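User: what does the whole thing look like in 3D?
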Amino acid sequence: MVTISDVAKDAGVSVSTVSYVLSGKRPISATTRERVERSISSLGYHPQASARALASNRSSALALVVPLRRDVIVPVIMQFASGVVVTARTHDHDVLLMTQDEGAGGLQRVSGSGLVDALIVMDVEAQDPRVEVLRGLRQPAVLIGLPDDPRGLGCVDLDFAAAGRVLARHLAEHGHRALALLGPSPAVYDRGTSFATRFLRGYQQAAEEEGVRAVAHACEPSFAGVAAWLDRVESELPGLSALVVHNEAALAPLLSVLSARGRRVPEDLSVVALCPADVAVSFPVPLSAVEIPAATIGELAVEMVLDQLEGRAQPSVRLLPPEFHERASCGPAPRPATPRPRRSRATARMGS
Amino acid sequence: MVTISDVAKDAGVSVSTVSYVLSGKRPISATTRERVERSISSLGYHPQASARALASNRSSALALVVPLRRDVIVPVIMQFASGVVVTARTHDHDVLLMTQDEGAGGLQRVSGSGLVDALIVMDVEAQDPRVEVLRGLRQPAVLIGLPDDPRGLGCVDLDFAAAGRVLARHLAEHGHRALALLGPSPAVYDRGTSFATRFLRGYQQAAEEEGVRAVAHACEPSFAGVAAWLDRVESELPGLSALVVHNEAALAPLLSVLSARGRRVPEDLSVVALCPADVAVSFPVPLSAVEIPAATIGELAVEMVLDQLEGRAQPSVRLLPPEFHERASCGPAPRPATPRPRRSRATARMGS
DNA sequence: TTGAAAGCGCTACCAG
DNA sequence: CTGGTAGCGCTTTCAA
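Assistant: Here's the predicted 3D structure for the full assembly of 704 residues, as structure tokens:
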């Protein structure tokens, strides 16, 4: 194994000079630098990560904690993780992959052992017990999600409230006067996952502002679940002409069930969703949808956490604006709109 | 920060004793061990990873290289990665996440810098340039996939040939005499990805043995691609009554197109696939399918690579047997089988 | 602009 | 069964 002193010897300089050539932390004459670099590549020298970390007290690694639950949208996780890894590499950092099930203890372990310089934690819930632990660590952290009390921690996420607003408003502007939100499975609400609630609030707020009737219910992502959900909202809301879907896994069953019942999209029923682009275009009629900018969130998380690490910035909360993509699943309301009241009461609630 | 000598002082023993308590590499009296452990937890001591790695020349980390291409099946990758991380943790190892795009240089970097003790590389192609690089590294490696020349490297993968055989044979046993294989997109074959070819060979072999007619064509996973594929095989193979799908992304379009054309599954056409269980059950008619045991492959990869690291085993190739799950998409051939020839010529080829 | 050398915290060898 | 201690390969301060 070739070490820094092998390089120093070969180049006829001191060890510290080689180190400074590598780090750029002090000026080096062009000729010296060149000699050193020649030796480095001719010897095939690679600085040893552990020695560097020990001496500098920096690991050049970030921890990334990903969820494993079955109700997460796997492709979104992957996009996000890719964004993190690629961005980390452009800042000369590596990524240590951890799973949710290591829990708070895992965070303490990697932090305490100095394995990483900073942490990025996905899928953080409103009352996540890990939040308090993260606040107590030596290393900075950025969360994907928005806990109730984010003090001291960076947060990045889609602005779910704005996403809910955008979708509801879009339907209202197409003349729809009665909307239904197909929400995530009940388990997601039970867990107190804040994004579901934020989306719902945005949806309700826009519906109210636009003066349209709107219901919302959680939905199990299966054929049976979707069928039951449909029965319920159709009986609950006569004149229903548009759906907002915040449940990726329910999309396929939903569209199957609709087609089986002879309800055409968008002629009979408009559908808009929050889902990745590739999912949106995987149906016979491409879905108008808001996307989760997962890769961007990943990049941003890395940049925020490194800014905190270098003292360039304080922890802050960043909610990214939703991007709506119009495709083919949203049309005008089928029946001429009934005379629009100046200010109708919006009804929106999230039942079980 | 609390160090090993703080613990030694607190417990009234030497640092080496603390070290040996931690590693268990030499006998320690019960009383000493207890005192040391008490000090460790009362001081909240965490051994520093970098110092340990420097002194022991072991990082206790594995590199995991995941693909980023759009034609990979993301959930399978995730299952696999989870299996790797969880298993690595049970063996006291962490996982460094790398992306495909770091290429051979990335492998050399993490290897040369001693960041990891071993490497696991996913999605390895028949003529993958990384194979030669991996062979030259100091650390052992295990590949997911099967390159043409795997000498010196461990390999784990599904036995794709057996999977192709199982599916074709299953259909033949249900009386189907004319089969079509809907393969991955042409890009996959062009890339020389060995799993596609292995699956195809197994399918062809079983068809020949069973004396059934069988065609095979690559297919773009889109509505247009699937429709064109269907037109082609139906005109090419009169009496076609069963499909084998080796293209997860094409499943949804395929089933939509079939339903739009009034072809019922399984009454008019039987369909079997190679896909994850959750995908198989996400359609109106649950698909009989072979699954990729991704989590198992991940576990196995970790165990194999650690066995190599510890000198407990030589690099070897392990192909896991396919597991077929009967669901609802496969029925008997619709028309009574034509008199079965003793040994008919099977036709199977993979056109563009 | 460069060199010398003191650690960083741990492991594992050598002694006892 | 336990202690002392020489490194592991690098960074960074102090000195020149």
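In plain terms: Confidence is low (pLDDT under 50) at residues 337-349 of chain A. The first strand of chain A starts at residue 61 and ends at 66.
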